C-alpha cells in the first residue's frame, strides 16, 4: 500500500455514549483506513460494531444523539460538521436491518430514490439501476413491491441501492444475516469484485468469520467498545486467548491446523479456507512419506 495515500477513514480517540448510558458504546477508538482497503470488522453482540458504522456514516451525531469525544473524518470531511446528505455521496451504508433502510414501494423506486437525492440525470439513473441489480443478481425483482420480498431479498435490494450510488466507501453491517450460505457467498464475492475492480473501500461487519477470514487482508475486532485486534485474519485467529474470550467462530479448518501446530506436527501458516487446508495437508503428507 502506498503510504503517501491520505486515509479515507480516520477515527481518532473516538468515544461515544448513547443518551442516559453510563457505559460507552465506543471507547477510545483509533482506526485508519486507506483508499482501496477491504476490511473486516467483527466482535461479539453488543461490542459496538453497529455504533461504529453509525459514527462513520454520520448518523451519529446527526440523527442519533449522545455524548461523544474525538473525531471521525471521511475522505477529508469531519462527519460532525458535514451534513449526512453530503456524506452519503462518499460513504454508502447497508444497515443490519433492511426493513429500517428501505423506504420506497418497489425495488426500482428504492434504487432510484438515492440516485434522485444525488441529482443523477435520468438516463444515467436507469443505467445505474440496471447495472446494480445485475451485479447483485436481482434483475428479476426490479418491478416487485418491497413488501412482498423475503428478508434475504430485501438485504440484496439494500446492497444494490448502496452500490448504485457508487460511493468511494461502502460500509455493510451484517449484510448476509438473512441469506443462505450460497447467497452469503455471492454477496461476499461481489464485494471482493467491487474492491478489486473499482477500488471501492469496503468495511464489512460480519460475525461469520469463515466467510470473512479468507477474503479480507485486515480484520478488526471490537470487544466491549474497544478495538482489541487489528491485523491479518491469520494473525488474529492465531491468538487463542483472544479467540476464546471473544467467542470468535474460527473456521474449522483453521482450528484443526492450530491443533496440529500445537502438537508440533505443523509449522506453516494457518489455513483460513478448506482449499488452503487441502494444499497444506498435501504438502505435509508428501514430506512425511518416505
Ligand atoms: N439506541 C441505543 N440506545 C442505547 N444504547 C444502545 C443503543 N444502540 C445500542 N446500544 C448499546 O450500545 C452497545 C453497542 O451496541 P451495538 O449495536 O453497536 O453492538 P453490535 O456490536 O453491533 O452488536 P450486534 O452484533 O448484536 O449487532 C450495546 O451495549 C447496546 O446495548
Ligand atoms: Mg450490530
TrEMBL record:
<dbReference type="GO" id="GO:0005524">
    <property type="term" value="F:ATP binding"/>
</dbReference>
<protein>
    <submittedName>
        <fullName>Energy-coupling factor transporter ATP-binding protein EcfA1</fullName>
        <ecNumber>3.6.3.-</ecNumber>
    </submittedName>
</protein>
<keyword id="KW-1003">Cell membrane</keyword>
<keyword id="KW-0067">ATP-binding</keyword>
<dbReference type="InterPro" id="IPR003439">
    <property type="entry name" value="ABC_transporter-like_ATP-bd"/>
</dbReference>
<dbReference type="InterPro" id="IPR050095">
    <property type="entry name" value="ECF_ABC_transporter_ATP-bd"/>
</dbReference>
<keyword id="KW-1278">Translocase</keyword>
<dbReference type="GO" id="GO:0016887">
    <property type="term" value="F:ATP hydrolysis activity"/>
</dbReference>
<dbReference type="GO" id="GO:0042626">
    <property type="term" value="F:ATPase-coupled transmembrane transporter activity"/>
</dbReference>
<comment type="similarity">
    <text>Belongs to the ABC transporter superfamily.</text>
</comment>
<dbReference type="GO" id="GO:0043190">
    <property type="term" value="C:ATP-binding cassette (ABC) transporter complex"/>
</dbReference>
<feature type="domain" description="ABC transporter">
    <location>
        <begin position="9"/>
        <end position="249"/>
    </location>
</feature>
<dbReference type="InterPro" id="IPR015856">
    <property type="entry name" value="ABC_transpr_CbiO/EcfA_su"/>
</dbReference>
<keyword id="KW-0472">Membrane</keyword>
<keyword id="KW-0378">Hydrolase</keyword>
<dbReference type="InterPro" id="IPR017871">
    <property type="entry name" value="ABC_transporter-like_CS"/>
</dbReference>
<keyword id="KW-0547">Nucleotide-binding</keyword>
<dbReference type="InterPro" id="IPR027417">
    <property type="entry name" value="P-loop_NTPase"/>
</dbReference>
<dbReference type="InterPro" id="IPR003593">
    <property type="entry name" value="AAA+_ATPase"/>
</dbReference>
<keyword id="KW-0813">Transport</keyword>
<dbReference type="Pfam" id="PF00005">
    <property type="entry name" value="ABC_tran"/>
</dbReference>
Amino acid at each position: 500500500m502506498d503510504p503517501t495515500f491520505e486515509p479515507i477513514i480516520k477515527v481518532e480517540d473516538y468515544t461515544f455514549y448513547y443518551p442516559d448510558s453510563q457505559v460507552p458504546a465506543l471507547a477510545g477508538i483509533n482506526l485508519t483506513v486507506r483508499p482501496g482497503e477491504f476490511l473486516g470488522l467483527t466482535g461479539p453482540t453488543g461490542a459496538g460494531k453497529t455504533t461504529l458504522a453509525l459514527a462513520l456514516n454520520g448518523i451519529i451525531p446527526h440523527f442519533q444523539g449522545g455524548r461523544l469525544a474525538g473525531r471521525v473524518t471521511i475522505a477529508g470531511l469531519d462527519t460532525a460538521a458535514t451534513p449526512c446528505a453530503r456524506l452519503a455521496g462518499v460513504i454508502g451504508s447497508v444497515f443490519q436491518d433492511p426493513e429500517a433502510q428501505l423506504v420506497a414501494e418497489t425495488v426500482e423506486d428504492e434504487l432510484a430514490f438515492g440516485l434522485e437525492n444525488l441529482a443523477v440525470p435520468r438516463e444515467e439513473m436507469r443505467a445505474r439501476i440496471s447495472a446494480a441489480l445485475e451485479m447483485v443478481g436481482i434483475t428479476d425483482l426490479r418491478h416487485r413491491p418491497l413488501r412482498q420480498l423475503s428478508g434475504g431479498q430485501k438485504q440484496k435490494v439494500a446492497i444494490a441501492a448502496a452500490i448504485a450510488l457508487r460511493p468511494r466507501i461502502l460500509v455493510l453491517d451484517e449484510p448476509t444475516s438473512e441469506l443462505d450460505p450460497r447467497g452469503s457467498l455471492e454477496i461476499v464475492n461481489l464485494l471482493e469484485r467491487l474492491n478489486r475492480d473499482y477500488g471501492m473501500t469496503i468495511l464489512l461487519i460480519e460475525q461469520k468469520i469463515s466467510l470473512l477470514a479468507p477474503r479480507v487482508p485486515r480484520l478488526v475486532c471490537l470487544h466491549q467498545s474497544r478495538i482489541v485486534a487489528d491485523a491479518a485474519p491469520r494473525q488474529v485467529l492465531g491468538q487463542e486467548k483472544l479467540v476464546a474470550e471473544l467467542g470468535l467462530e474460527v473456521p474449522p479448518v483453521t482450528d484443526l491446523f492450530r491443533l496440529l501446530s500445537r502438537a508440533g506436527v505443523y509449522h506453516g501458516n494457518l489455513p483460513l479456507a478448506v482449499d488452503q487446508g487441502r494444499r497444506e495437508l498435501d504438502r505435509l503428507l508428501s514430506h512425511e512419506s518416505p
